Amino acid sequence: MINNDKYKELIKYLKGLGKVVLAFSGGVDSTFLLKVSKEALGDNVKAVTILSPYIPKWEIEEAKELVKELGVKHEIIEAPIIDSIRYNPEDRCYLCKTAVFSMILNAAKEQGYDYVIDGTNFDDISDYRPGLRALKELEVKSPLLECKLTKAEIRAFSKELKLNTWDKPPYACLLTRIPYGNELKEEDFVKIENAEKYMMSIGFRAIRVRCHGDLARIEVSRNDRSKLFDEELLDTIANKIKEFGFKYVTLDLQGYRVGSFNETIGK
């Protein structure tokens, strides 16, 4: 076990929960939490991953592999695009989390688990995250938040535990790529997923392709913007992304930032 007070507190907290289901995405936070939950609870932890049109297929496959490596039971639950978020309202995250975690809670209850936990961390409370209200209302436990673990600490612990997700870039569901008020269409999610997967394949790790109908707005890491100052590369990217169904391709000059569509709320 890692010799750190916060880490020991997390182990103690998890042991107090008894038997848990972890909402598992395969990201930095949920992978770290799954590893520690396995250490604290043994076979009394199960991972549940949501399969939906707005979750990239590659993320589902990565989640499957990670759970297998950690030796934890795993269940996939299919979740459709619910009617209440069809036109991407500003409280979409709250409505979506409520629906999805209600499904997970029902499955956990039927299978005899005591709690559902998720990977919300201490830094998340500083961002606009209406989904946190849903978790609180449903009494989902957030051990990383409760033990005040920051993203930097989680990455450091993950590296010490030899988890290959320790330096994985942040990633959010594809709903965040669509402007608020726009209809959610499965074909747009396919375009976005293909475009982002392509950008990752050519070396852009932190990438968002925001979908404005026929226009793709690319956000890359601020440190990666200079890589795009190459006319041949720009032409190659534009042509490739058009192959996925977009008619126009543009670059966001500010670069990638978390929840860039949240900048439009209240304006």
TrEMBL record:
SUPFAM superfamilies: Adenine nucleotide alpha hydrolases-like (SSF52402). GO terms for molecular function: sulfurtransferase activity. Residues 16-78 form the NAD/GMP synthase domain. GO terms for biological process: purine nucleotide metabolic process. Pfam families: NAD_synthase. The active site is at C173. PANTHER family: EXSB FAMILY PROTEIN, NAD_GMP SYNTHASE DOMAIN-CONTAINING PROTEIN. This is TIGR00268 family protein. It comes from Clostridium drakei. The lineage of its organism: Bacteria, Bacillati, Bacillota, Clostridia, Eubacteriales.
